[in-house]
Model the fold of this input.
Amino acid sequence: MTNGNEFRVIDGSLQDRFLKLRSKIQFYGGGFGNGKTSCTCVKAIQLMKDYPGSHGAVLRETLPKVTGTTMKEFFKWLPKSWIKSFNKQDRMLTLINGSTCVFSYLVQQGSGSDTTSNTLSATFDWALVDQVEDPGIVYKDFTDLLGRLRGSAKYVGDDPTMPRTGPRWLFLACNPTRNWVYKKLIAPYLLYKRTGKITDDLLIDKANGKLLLELVEGSTYENKDNVPEDFIRTLELTYKGQMKDRFLNGEWAGYEGLVYPEFDVGINMIPNKWVEEYFFDLKSKYDLTILEGFDYGLAVPSCYMLGFVDPFGNIIILDGMYEKELTLEQIATKITQIRMKYGIFDRDILADPSIFKRTMIDGQKNVSLAEEFFTKYNIRMIPAQNDIISGIAKVTGYLSKNKMHQNPFTKEYNSPYLYISDKLEFFETEISNYYWSKSTKDEYQDKPVDKDDHAMDTLKYMLTYRPNISNIIEKKDKKSSIPLEWSEIDDDYE
Done:
């Protein structure tokens, strides 16, 4: 395939590994300039050649994005001698062997609508979505597009590993992100590759154990043979810290300014079924330390979370509620229902100290919100520690990985001490968007942005009386004849 340009593929390189993928969904991720767009285009062009009469789609979020970048890259590698015609108005490419390809977009133009385009009413033999992490592309677009891969063009090449018809493949190219792409596609895949654990979101054919999605990813440095000499150096001078981690090193968790960059949805968020089974199994054997936290809101959500400490010092958030504009009675009812589900009664809830000062009129006297919860609904709350920076420091310790610590669910070492049920989507949303504030000089300050932080505050309250993680690790490493508290036990249990 030549067009005056040279596309070098080195054995074992990112491009080589991607071109050899044969799964239904083929994902190319990683840093800037690591060859994502060019390689996915080259593979799509090869399919047009080897499946005469096939119909494909090259897609991006918007029309300007697809015509301004991806389409130009596609034609860069397409031999002109293969082209029969190109309709600029419809953006329809036709090759001399009858194969066609449309260059289109996934989000409707104008009026700010987020509905999908008519592209998803067609049928394709293959499709390519470039920059699938773009904010206008949603999970439903992905599933709808999979449903359009119903072509049956016949293969005429000589590679025995290729599908005989179709091939009904979807190519996805993406920079590291924390949106649905990571949560629904990448995190379950990476967990399975590390541990063999199968979650509900994992794209796998359970009948034969074959993965429907395969991932190739790498840093910008892994494509040094295909970029100009000064490209990487320019990026190194431009991006620092977490931006470098994300856009050069291709790390999924690299986000500048996040309060908790250590949080990884693929590690810290655990399938709810696993969490509940773990809790009830431990509850039948131990007198577990229960943790509860509450942050009151009216126009903004009230947040309640229930968790426990396992025998290895891990904190596991089990359940919770997150709703706004609720009365005290409605809040109390929801808390009581969650407690009853897990057999939790008559415990102290660590709460925002402000509810002990905020008052309401009850009859002829003023009472605090905390007093009202206790006298009317038998829910006893006590003031939590409310220092923001020390609370963040403690949470950071529990999120940080420790080389000798084992994940209680996957049994992996080099794991954190904090885990959250994936049913608490509000927690994941908040922590993934919890940033340090900036000064007027555009410099980060030692305080988070005061917005959408109710679950983050609740988590800090829950940890008020828990030891700093350094104390737990020190006690575990220290050999002593004096028995430790069961929740901070010796390494012999691991």
